[in-house]
Specification:
Keywords: Flavoprotein, FMN, NADP, Oxidoreductase, RNA-binding, tRNA processing, tRNA-binding. Its EC number is 1.3.1.91. InterPro entries: Aldolase_TIM (IPR013785), DUS-like_FMN-bd (IPR035587), DUS_fam (IPR001269), DusA (IPR004653), tRNA_hU_synthase_CS (IPR018517). Its cofactor is FMN. It is a single chain. The protein is α/β, with parallel strands linked by helices and about 325 residues long. It folds into two domains: about 240 residues, Aldolase class I (TIM Barrel); about 70 residues, Four Helix Bundle (Hemerythrin (Met), subunit A). The protein is about 45% helix and about 15% strand. It has 18 helices and eight strands. It has an eight-stranded parallel barrel with strand order 1-2-3-4-5-6-7-8, surrounded by six helices. Helix 1 packs antiparallel against helix 13 and helix 6 runs parallel beside helix 7. The longest helix is centred in the last third of the chain and has 19 residues. The radius of gyration is 20 Å and the shape is globular. The two termini are about 30 Å apart. The N terminus is likely disordered.
Length: about 325
């Protein structure tokens, strides 16, 4: 797949512990044109850890971006080189995660307070790789809500060579809220992302935060270049097929049976080539039958530790059979 033929119109958010390579393969089956992102990988994990475990991915995932967490320009530059060596299509710098662990490492959302440092990181990464270097960030920190703050951040970082900004349209509260609460409590202010696009028309501006319906995505695409969807894409993955058809390929009409067969084949390949246990793969497809008769039985079988202990990929077919013929026949063409 030639990633240059794809825009970032529909992107799937990097989600820690969720968007691993198995999840991304599943999402690719559902949405051939969506841009996929890895979980955030820290520079330390790559420079001092198991590189293959963090960077290995299936060629089917293209276009796929590696999201990095870090704040040392030299370290980020080396990791950007590694991303290119491993065949990624983009390197993304995390300037939006508010967790205390990330703050202790002096990166993530707290980097918004240091736009010049972020600019230095971007320069180093751009010099180290031919891949596009992008930044994901919030619209403010703690009680800082004035537009000049995020405008100044984008202006400074864009001058360093970043032309794509993924804007999570909430403030990040660095104290007092958990990461989960930071995704829910600070109010969404989409108008900030809209204003950024008006002020920087030459930049690619993507909007992230709270998008869950086709209508909501369509509305935002009137104001920005693309959207990034997180929890809704993971929890209700069949929506990805709908979004692919609505915003990328009007002819896209996969059957649910075909998606299931694709995951059976993938699970068999992973078991054969890497010894990957089935449970590591099927945990990502539990929401596939949502809103269909038999969905509860589907989820129950694929999350049963006893059933999964020595299970073969055919267990995915067995679970899908519990959903019933009527559900299996439902697809986007129907």
């Amino acid at each position: 797949m030639n990633s240059s033929m794809h825009s970032r119109r529909i992107t799937i958010a990097p989600m820690l512990d969720w968007t691993d390579r198995h999840c991304r393969h599943f999402h690719r089956l559902l949405a051939p044109h969506a841009w996929l992102y890895t979980e955030m990988v820290t520079t330390g994990a790559l420079l001092f850890g198991d590189v293959a475990r963090h960077l290995r991915f299936n060629p089917s995932e293209h276009p796929v971006a590696l999201q990095l967490g870090g704040s040392e320009p030299a370290d980020l530059a080396r990791c950007a080189q590694m991303a290119e060596e491993w065949g990624y299509d983009e390197v993304n710098l995390n300037c939006g995660c508010p967790s205390e662990r990330v703050q202790r490492g002096a990166f993530g959302a707290c980097l918004m307070n240091e736009p010049q440092l972020v600019a230095e990181c971007v320069v180093a990464m751009c010099e180290a790789t031919k891949l596009p270097v992008t930044v994901k960030h919030r619209i403010g920190i703690d009680q800082i809500e004035h537009y000049d703050f995020v405008h100044g951040f984008v202006d400074t970082v864009s001058r360093a060579g970043c032309s794509t900004f993924i804007v999570h349209a909430r403030n990040a509260w660095l104290k007092g809220l958990s990461p989960k609460e930071n995704r829910e409590i600070p109010p969404l202010r989409y108008e900030v992302a809209h204003q950024l696009k008006r002020d920087f028309p030459q930049l690619e501006i993507l909007l992230n935060g709270g998008l869950a319906t086709t209508a909501a995505i369509a509305e935002q695409l009137q104001h920005v270049d693309g959207v990034m969807i997180g929890r809704e894409a993971y929890n209700n993955p069949w929506l990805l097929a709908e979004w692919e058809r609505s915003f990328c390929d009007p002819a896209w009409a996969p059957s649910r049976d075909a998606i299931i067969e694709g995951m059976v084949e993938y699970a068999a390949q992973e078991a054969r080539e890497h010894g990957t246990p089935l449970r590591a793969i099927v945990r990502h497809i539990l929401g596939f039958a949502n809103h269909l008769p038999g969905a509860r039985s589907f989820r129950r079988l694929l999350s049963d530790p006893n059933a999964l202990r020595d299970a073969q990929p055919e267990l995915i077919r067995e679970a899908w059979a519990l959903v019933g013929a009527r559900a299996a026949e439902e697809d986007l063409a129907g």
